[in-house]
Amino acid sequence: MKELLIVFHSMTDGTRQMAEAAARGAAAESEVQVRLMRAPEVGAEDVLRAAGYVFATPENLAAMSGLMKDFFDRTYYAALDRIAGRAYATLICAGSDGQNAARQIERICTGWRLRAVADPLIVCTHAQTPEAILAPKTIGVNDLHRCEETGAAIAAGLALGVF
Question: Dihedral of CA 54/60/62/65: which sign?
């Protein structure tokens, strides 16, 4: 059975909701095991075991979160040249545009020679004040549905051997 690894970090719950929605969508595919893991808990062995990935991060100071960066720092070299060609998708919970966080993940995945199977899905919360940025987030139904579709699509592709 192929495994889809969903790695996320979330401080205000927005990214967690997005990652869980992707996991729900992927779980509909019975031939794929879905593992939803917080970034600090993921090790190189988890990355090596998976056939595909969803990376979900908040945008913090126009970048991926520090704990997502830590995940990549801890696993990058152990997986280098061992996971080339595997599929990935990116989910970003952003206060403004999320583009730099998406570029950072894309550059890391390019180094790993992963294959993007979807454009980065960026949900913008428009949180711009310290209070709004630090407040718990609630992701809307339509955006959660898009996250579910991303999870379902990558799981279906893994099950069919498309990627």
Answer: negative
What does R_g of the chain's alpha carbons equal in angstroms? 15
Q: Is the pTM of this model over 0.90?
A: yes
Helices 14-27 and 141-160, packing angle to 10 deg: 40
Q: What is the secondary structure of the chain as a DSSP string?
A: -EEEEEEE--SSSHHHHHHHHHHHHHHT-TTEEEEEEEGGG--HHHHHH-SEEEEEEEEETTEE-HHHHHHHHHHHHHHTTTSTT-EEEEEEEESS--HHHHHHHHHHHHHHT-EE-S--EEEE----SHHHHHS-----HHHHHHHHHHHHHHHHHHHHT--
pLDDT tens digits for 45-71?
999 999 999 999 999 999 999 999 999
At 131, list the tokens: 């209070």
Q: Which domains does the chain have, with CATH numbers?
A: 2-160 (3.40.50.360)
Paired strand residues for 57: 92
Separation between Cα atoms, residue 119 and residue 110, nearest integer Å? 14
